[in-house]
Amino acid sequence: MNQTLVSYLSQYEFYDVLLAVFGKNEGLLAFTIYLLAALAIVGLCATIGGLGTYAERKISADLQQRMGPNRVGPYGLLQFLADGVKMMTKEDIMPFTADKFLFYLAPMLALIGVFATLAVLPWSSGFMMADLNVGVFYLIAISSLVGVSVFLGGYASNSKWSMLGGMRGASQIISYEIPVTISILAITLLSGGMSFGTILSHQQGTPVNWFIFHNPFAFVAFFVYAIGALAETNRAPFDLPEAESELVSGYHTEYTGMRFGFFALAEYIEVFVVCGVGAALFLGGGNLPFNLDIDIIPLQFAQVVIFMTKALLLYYVVIWVRWTLPRLRVDQLMSICWKYLTPIAIVNLMGCAIWLVVFNGKSMADLIFGSH
Amino acid sequence: MEYTVGNIAPIFLSPVIAFVINAFFGRKLPRQGDWLATLSIFISFIFSARIFGDFVFGTFATDFFIHKTFTWFDLSHGANIWKVDMGIYIDNMAAIMLLMVSGVAFLIHLFSTWYMDHDEKHGRFFVFLPLFTSAMLGLVLSDNLFSLFIFWEIMGFCSYSLIGIYNKKEAAGDASLKAFMTTRVGDVFLLLGMVAIWMVIGSVAYVDIYAAIAEGKFAGQTVIGISLATFAGLCIFLGGMGKSAQFPLHVWLPDAMMGPTPGSALIHAATMVAAGVYLSLRMYPLMVLGDLTWFIAVIGAITAFGAATIALVQTDIKAVLAFSTISQLGYMMIGVGVGSYNAAFMHLITHAIFKACLFLSAGSVIHSVHEQEMPKLGGLRKYLPYTHFAMMCCTLAIAGIPFFSGFVSKDRILGDALYFGFIAGQNPLLAIVPILGFAGAGLTAFYMFRMMFLTFYGENRMGHHDSHGDEHAHGDHHHGHDIHHEHLDARSNVPLLILSVFTLGVWFAGSLTGQGIVKVFGEKTEWFKILVEAPKVERFVKHPREAFGSTDSRVKAELPKAKYDHQSGYAGPNPDDHKIHSAHVVGAWMSIVIAFLGVFIAFLMYIKKSIKPLASMFPGYTETLKNKYYFDNLYVDVIIKKGLLGLNRFLSWFDMGIFDRFAVDGWAAVNRVLFKASKWFDNVVVDAIGVDGTGVAVNLFNLVLRIVQSGKIQFYFIMLIVVLASYIWTVNI
Amino acid sequence: MNGILNWILWLPIIGMVGIILTPKAKENVIRMMTLVTTSITLILSILLYLKFDTSTADMQFVTKLPWISQFHINYFIGIDGITMLMTFLNALLFFICTLSSWTVTKNIKAYFALLLMLQSTVFGVFFSLDFFLFYVYWEVMLLPMFFLIGIWGGENREYAAIKFFLYTFFGSIFMLVGIIALYYASGKGVDSFNILAHQGGKFTELQVNVFGKSFSFEHLFFWFMFLGFAIKVPVFPFHTWLPHAHVQAPTAVSVILAGVLLKMGTYGFLRIAFPIFPQAAVEYSTIIAVLGLISVIYGAFCAMAQDDVKKLIAYSSVSHMGFVMLGLSAMTTQGMNGAVLQMFNHGTSTAMMFLLIGILYERSHHRWIVKPDGSKGYGGLSTKLPKYTTVFIIGMFASLGLPGLSGFISEALIFLGIYEKFTTITVIAVVGLLIGAAYLLWMFKRMFFGEVNPETEDYEDMNAREVFYMIPLCICVIVFGIFPSPLLNVMKASVGQLVDLLSKY
Amino acid sequence: MFVQLLFALSALLTVGCAIAVAVTKNIMHSCIFLLGSLLGIAGLYATLGADFVAVTQIMVYVGGVVILMLFAVMLTGGKDFVSRAQNLLGLAPAMGNKWTYAIGLLVGLVVLLTNVKLIMNISKAYPAKVFGNDFPSTVNQIGHLLIKEHVLAFELSSVLLLGALVGAAIIARPRKQG
Amino acid sequence: MMSLVSYLIISLILFIVGLVVMIARKNIIAILLGIELILNAAALNFVAYSRYVTNNLDGHVFSLFIIVIAAAESAIGLAIVIRFFQIKETIHVDEATQLRN
User: Fold this and answer.
1) Count of alpha carbons within 13 Å of A50, Cβ hemisphere only?
2) Torsions phi, psi for B519 (to 5 deg)
3) How far is A169 from chain D (nearest CA, A)?
4) Do D70 and A101 touch (CB under 8 A)?
5) ipTM score
6) Assuming Cys at both sites, which of B188, B271, D177, E92 could form a disulfide with D83, CB separation 3.0 to 4.6 Å?
7) What's the gap between Cα B655 and its chain centre?
8) Cβ contact B625:B306 at 8 Å
9) Measured between beta carbons, which residues in chain D are less than 8 angstroms from residue A167?
10) What are the E-state strand segments in A143-191?
């Protein structure tokens, strides 16, 4: 493992002070730091997820020339809290014929899958929970738990709508994992490593060094990733598993209260994660557009801000797309994945490989502005 | 002026250029490019005239010749030298020939622009005519047999195309096919003879052949049992026979009249058919060496007489002329055969001029009245005065009337034939040559005047024909009622008149007979006789070759004093000069008498009508003549249809029905038997006993194993585990 | 430099792969791809000609890479003057065939893919200087041919295709035995599969035991090779596959078959049978000449009896290839050169004839001069189709050897060559020329002259595409008839080397 | 400490879920327990320093195999199918009965005993090793191994996957009647 | 606590459980579940040996191949099950008695 939050913090003096406080018990200190960081990130993400619902409503209202939520708090900002309170206080109904065990398990799995991905999300070069060697790979792998949860949710409800939604969701998520993975693989190829640290270190400096501008194939790969990511998170126009007009509400039709909230929260956080990953892989993540050669905590926070900005911009685009494009049919969904995205992604991968061989690893920027 | 590519090539190339332009863009040109063709021939004529002037009017020594070569392609590799040279060879004969060909061709082109006007094949006609002319000029310019053969064949192709130009007529197709194939028979022999010579002396240039003859290179060489000179000479002469329509390869020429009349005039009267004679003259030393002259003479005599007899009964004006052409070509061959080299060539020239004129006149008649059957014509003298004048001049010439060119040349041939047949002391059977020759001359005079009388004299019979009352008759035939009086037209009449001027003997010889016997025109006009003589082969030994661009070693020389006494082959001074002279005297008078006799009989028959026409006199024989001695039937019906096609059908049937079916596909049957045998062996011996027997044995064992093979997969798992566990326990790792 | 040859060899394969990857429905894309491939090949072959050094008989543009090094088998290609001509011919004819195949509608993708494969394999046969490579190409060539005849052919195509395949295969088996024998005879060394290394009469002394009897190696295996190549030519007793294959094959394939594939047989004699077994070749030249003579006469006679135009031309091919055999058997400078030139000229003129018949067939859907019921199949075509007639005349007269067109020079050279050795045969062979003219002109007369047949009333004249692809052939036929030097200069060094070799025995 | 904790949790998850797989009568639940077991194994891999294998385990099993199994269960009738020929066969329902379990446990006992014997030997042969908390990256090395030493197996497995892909598609595709 | 033997014991338990599942169950999918367990037991052994005995990564590679093969096997197996169900309308393993329908 390259680096963790603890190992990063250990280079600062206050770490030694903390270590002394914990009686030289490194394990306990590390545990504490992780725990705190995890709580912070989960809290942050839960907030982001909640704000996501608000943003969605507000932006959709903007697009449709309505007002949107504007009663609770300034500009309706606290609407999500009110919603959350409402959900928690609602009755937790379970259908009589449901498979209870699975019915309980499904939203948990969704949350587990999403929160587990946060462990490797590169907020900044230092503030990563853990910069795994297999970071991106881990992220893809663990997020597939969401697929299982969607399926189980649909199945366990023992309802036709849910069942169909679950089936659709599972097949959609599995299918779109392939172009997404291959696109990410292309970036892995360019950076020479799967850890986010490595990937980001290759994109330092001005935007021309971002991987999206590395070569034409990477440029295309970004869009393949974006489309695939939309589908993986069941966002419109790929929101077939929860299509209101067809399946009432898809796999979470039968869920109420906080269990429904879990699904919703998981979805919004996943969207954020996906956007963050896109920002990190293609758009330079939290890298500052200049290199100061010093590493201080405020700079890390600046990186966090940059990262968040990029991710949230993508988040905006995702919402924008939802309210712009109509929903696809199932067959169109599958044909887009298998007939277009997957071949394009494979060609991109090969193209990137060939590019690397032909131009000796140089990016377009290197070729145009000269190697540095 | 130097002889360079620049002033020799246009002779040949300007018609080629006209051909190319007309072939590709003729339709887009005004008048479909006929002016272009005519102009190109005129250019050739200008350049030819210069050469003629140089050679004839004493710029050069009389025995001067130009021979320039260039390499066409070269197959040499290492020490092995092998290349094909092309070149030009111009001597007096070629110079005269050039002028004649280009001049006649120019006049015929000019005439054709009138004759072919509004014809649907106008454009196409003027594509092939310049090509033909260029080929003929090229043939004359050729220095070797190889290039001669090339032009020879191109002429054949043009002939083929022009005969078949009216492609809607089935008969045109037949005629063109016949013409090409018959001449092709001769051509392949020509090729063979050429190859034979080439392989022995390493070249087919005339000068090299002459030199080889002089050096005796032919001596001792044999080909399939006969001497090379005989073989090669015979083959080459066969080629000439095909082209010059000599018996028995004469059958194509009458049918060739299917083409437009001016084309016939140029190709099948004046030039191409004479090419065979020209070739024989060029190869004269070889013929002598190969002892073929008697053969040539006999063939010529048979042709001359036979064709003349057939011409007696022809009713088509063009057919009469066609057979007269064959007949006259026969005379030329007699001339070659009897050693009358100069006269034969002179007859070639004179015949070309008057026969071209005759054909053009016939064309003029046909074009004016749209009828070419003589019994339906008559009395056209009033309507077509210029045509009548021209045709009368030519008829007088061909009939051998004194003061006309035909007399000059033919009389000398007959005189030499007389000597050849009776006096020279050869085989007495050769007396047939002069006998047939004189008989033919008489018949010529007769049938030519028969044609004249039937066409131009007597009452107009056109009306009779139309009075049968076919009111829906084709528009073309109505011209019979109101033939307009002919006006002097630059394109239609002037060529005729120009040509008819040259039917006078004065242009060719100083004396009336051409032999110096009756001197009427002065000695200076004996130029022809002085300039043209059989090649003296010794001159060509060690002759240096000149490449194009090298300067000429020309010697200006006065014309030597004419030799008036005799012409008898190349073989040195003849001790029988006196006998030859007397033979000529006898011959001259005999031919005059015979010619006038013929004219007189014709006059009695067709003007006075005091003698019944020929057909009623010998009806059986007439039938034979009308069928042209049944040669066409023999060739087409018997040899080709019965023999050749039968053989072909048999071979084709044999190939597919017998050879392919049994010898090739038969192996399939053999294989089938083998398959069956091996199948039986495989099924019965190998499979049933060897394999299935094993199966039966295994089956028995199966009964035991079946208990274990329950088909339940879990049972297999258990067995597997138990066996593995027991293994581990027993082996005690 | 060497790259050009490899490009020529592999470009059709690249094109074929491209076609295979193209969706079946995109027919015009497939056609254009084939056209582009063949035209680039043609341009490259012209470039090759321009870069060709005519002064030497050595192999040029040689590429030699190890292939199966255990057996010393190499990817060894190169060309000399003889193959230069064949390369150009092949490139030209395939370019033209692509255009003429524009109207093929049945399974275009496979058709053009096979066509390109055929081109590459034919190139391979001509370029190979390694026996193994040669044999591989020789055999692989049968495959596209088999399918092209068997799928796109006429009504009796399966029979013809199988016959063609089996017959040729039969011959090449013998060739294979010969190749293996040479491999062992040359000691299995570095050059055991090198064609060039075997040349020059290295096996004259060698004896070989077969069935307990001792034979001269050279004489025995000359006949093995002879059989393989003679079937391909085809020489008289082995010719019967040709009419079937030609009649049934689609137009373009007929063109290729007559234009290029037959040349592979005579090419085999020039490259393999004669140089490797010179003594036997000289000794048996009489037999070759007699067989050639029989082919000439027999082919011509059979052609005359045919009522099927295509069959007629097929038999004329037998006759014309007989001339090539005659020229080869002469073993003289002019004979050999004439034979090679005849290979090229026959390629162009017969290609013209087959293409023209194909054009007519597209309009009439039959090929009968005289239908089996006795009525005329055509008639008066020259009135309806003037352009077609003009081109037909050029092709026909080139085929029958009219001077000024290409066929004549080669035939004359062959006669000049053969006369030196076999005078009697020459005398008989000229009959072939005569009959050759007869059947063609008779066919022409029956098809083109006379009143317009009502059946042919609505035929259209050649369209622009058809004219376009006939033009190069017309130019070849006319220009090389007047100036044969561009062709002869290329080949004379190579042919001369062979003649020198043969003249030692 | 983390590693021990992880090991303990993973082992517990693995073994517990595995036993649950065997015990539960609901095939759907079996699948979910299998998922748990597989995740536990991934955790065990992580404790062994095999990060790449661990992630691959999650990727393939969670993302692929288990969902596939769930699909299969669903497509073949879900939890409440009963063997049509149950009475005829008489022996066992699809999810087994006490007799089948007895046989299974018997065989399991055999295996257990056998393996205990083997493991005894192994524990003697390889005394316990203690590793620190250093987990070097394996990705690069695995990559090199895959395309150098094990390249044949790597390529073959890709062919195998392709074959499986095509084969599965062909086998499971709906067929026209008649 | 962490040693080779502990991993081997876990793997042994997995194996035995897998075996029991395979033998006791008559449901084809359940049998496939058992197979997965057994395969994972084997893979775990490989990685454990690689860590504790051989000190190289060949075990990792091998377990990767096992994962690959398991994926392929389950894909094919489940395809067969679905097809089998379409034909027989059951997935009882003892129903699979014919080689063709």
Assistant:
1) 18
2) -80, 115
3) 11
4) no
5) 0.55
6) E92
7) 35
8) no
9) 71, 74
10) none
Task: Please report, for the domain that includes residue E87, its CATH number.
Answer: 1.10.287.3510
With beta carbons less than 8 A apart as the criterion, state whether A224 and A348 touch: yes
DSSP assigned state of B67: E
Collapse the DSSP code of C203 into the 3-class scheme (helix H, G, I; strand E, B; otherwise coil) and give the result: coil
DSSP C408-472: HHHHHHHHHHHHHH-HHHHHHHHHHHHHHHHHHHHHHHHHHSSSPPGGGTTPPPP-HHHHHHHHH
According to DSSP, the residues that pair with B316 across neighbouring strands are: B373
From the number of C-beta atoms within 10 Å of its C-beta (0-12, 13-18, 19+), residue C187 rates as exposed
Handedness of CA D152, D154, D157, D159 (dihedral sign): negative
For the record, the structure tokens of C483 come out as 């100036």
How many separate domains does chain E show?
1
User: Average model confidence (pLDDT) for chain A?
Assistant: 82
Q: Which SS3 state, helix, strand or coil, does residue E78 take?
A: helix
**Tokens 């598609």 -> residue:** D169
On chain E, the residues whose CB falls within 8 A of the CB of D103 are 23-24
Residue B424: its pLDDT value, please?
72
* Summary mean pLDDT of chain B: 81
User: Does E100 map to a domain?
Assistant: no
Q: Residue C15: is its pLDDT beyond 80?
A: yes
Secondary structure class of B536 (helix, strand, coil)? coil
Report the candidate in C372, C448, C381 with the shortest Cα–Cα distance to residue B174: C448
Question: So what's the pLDDT on residue B575?
Answer: 60
Cβ-defined contact of D107 to B718 (cutoff 8 Å): yes
Judged against a pLDDT cut of 60, whether residue E92 lies above it is answered with yes
Tell which wins on pLDDT, B433 or B62: B433
Given a cut of 60, whether residue B726 has pLDDT beyond it is yes
Q: Say if residue B673 is exposed, middle or buried (CB neighbours under 10 Å; 0-12, 13-18, 19+).
A: exposed
- Secondary structure (3-state) at C71: helix
Distance CA(C139)–CA(C131), nearest Å, equals 12
Indicate whether E101 belongs to any domain.
Answer: no
Q: Which of C135, C103, C96, C100 is nearest to C119 (CA)?
A: C96
Measured CA to CA in angstroms, residue B304 lies from B299, B412, B414, B697, C301 at distances of 8, 15, 12, 102, 35
pLDDT of the residue at B60 = 66
| Cβ separation B168–C380 shorter than 8 A | yes
Single-letter amino acid, residue C61: F
Query: In this predicted model, what pLDDT tens digit does every residue of C215-242 receive, in sequence order?
Result: 888 888 888 889 889 998 888 888 888 8
d(CA C246, CA C269): 23
Contact A131, A183 (CB under 8 A): no
Largest CA distance in chain B: 146
Across A160-180, b (16+ Cβ under 10 Å) vs e yields ebbbbbbbbbbbbbbbbbbbb
Does the structural domain D2-81+95-136 have CATH classification 1.20.120.1200? yes
What pLDDT does residue C125 have? 92
- CB-CB contact of C385 with C459 (8 Å): yes
The pTM of the full predicted model, rounded to 2 decimals, is 0.66
**Would the pLDDT of B714 be above 80?**
no
The DSSP annotation for D135-175 comes to ----HHHHHHHHHTTTHHHHHHHHHHHHHHHHHHHHHHS--
Please judge whether D121 and B729 are an interchain contact, meaning their C-beta atoms are less than 8 angstroms apart. Answer: no
Question: Is the per-residue pLDDT at B574 higher than 70?
Answer: no
